[in-house]
Each structure stands twice: as C-alpha cells, then as structure tokens.
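Recall the central idea of this unit: under ordinary conditions, the amino acid sequence of a chain determines the structure it adopts. In this exercise we apply that idea directly, starting from the sequence alone.
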Amino acid sequence: MLSAPVFGDGPIVSPPTFNAINTHVAVTLFGGQRALLLQLAHPLVAAAVRDHSRFLSDPFGRLLRTLDFMHVILFGTAQERADSLRWFHAMHAPVQGRLREWASPFSEQTRYAGTEPSLVFWVWATLVESAPSVFQRVVSLLNSAQRRFFQASKEWGVDSHLKCNSCCKRTSAGVW
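Accordingly, the structure predicted from this sequence is:
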C-alpha cells in the first residue's frame, strides 16, 4: 500500500516554486497527454485501463483526475496527501485482472492489480518525466526553482515506495 512520505505538514514544494511553475500549467497538460500515451505502452497498465477505466469515453476526465491527484500530493498538507492516497487506494483496489493475450514480455493470463507498486510507479514516472520534458521543449530550459520542483516530484514517488528495483534507483546524482 502506498503511504505518504514524511515531508512535514506543509506542501512538498514551496509556494514560490509553485507560482513559477503554475505560470505554465497549460504546458503540463500537454505533458499529461504525452504521459498517457507512455502509460499505455506498458501492457499491464494498458490492460487495466482497457478493462477498468472510463478512459475511452472520458480521456480528459481521467487526465484531470490524475493531475488533481498529483497536485494534492505535491502542494497539499500532510492530511490532504493522506486523504488523497486513501482515495487512490479505494479507486484502484478493485482493479485486478489478467492479460487476455501475450504482450511482450508478459505471457497470456499474467495478472495485474491497480495497486501493484511497479505499475503505479510506471504511471507516476511517465507523469513526472513528461512534464519537464514538454516544459523545456515549449517554454524554456528549467531554472533552479523549476528543477527543484520536478526533482521533488520524482523523489516523492521514490520515497513513497512507488518504485520497484528494476525501474528506478536513487543515485548520488539524484533520482533516475
């Protein structure tokens, strides 16, 4: 189960950093669409989305709910983060199934679960990688406050045990 890391009671990212990033929120929405495509590249995530999501009928609703979750995790209080994680678990606990057919590297009938840490981390990683990537391509190179913001996003995922050893590691240079 995901748990809120100990970052104190306040936001993970300070308000001045948020204001600098908030100026370009529309850019991160494009990043969200990019992230969604990357999420679907994982066969187990794609199967879970296909079988348990309203993604096809409401793709932007799914995107906005995901971005709202990330917003609360990064900018909310400790209590708001804990509430958001409870919501996350309630929404994803029933998501369980099996692949209908072989999808490399997974065999037919491979099980998936909406709270499987490696799958949750895959989704988180696509979001926190896409936002700065799109930002730098459309707006400008990141300044130091913006780099700290995106680094805090990555570290929250790692510190929250969203990671699996095969997909992320903490190095002396940071995360990823």
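The CA atoms of residues 14 and 53 lie 33 Å apart.
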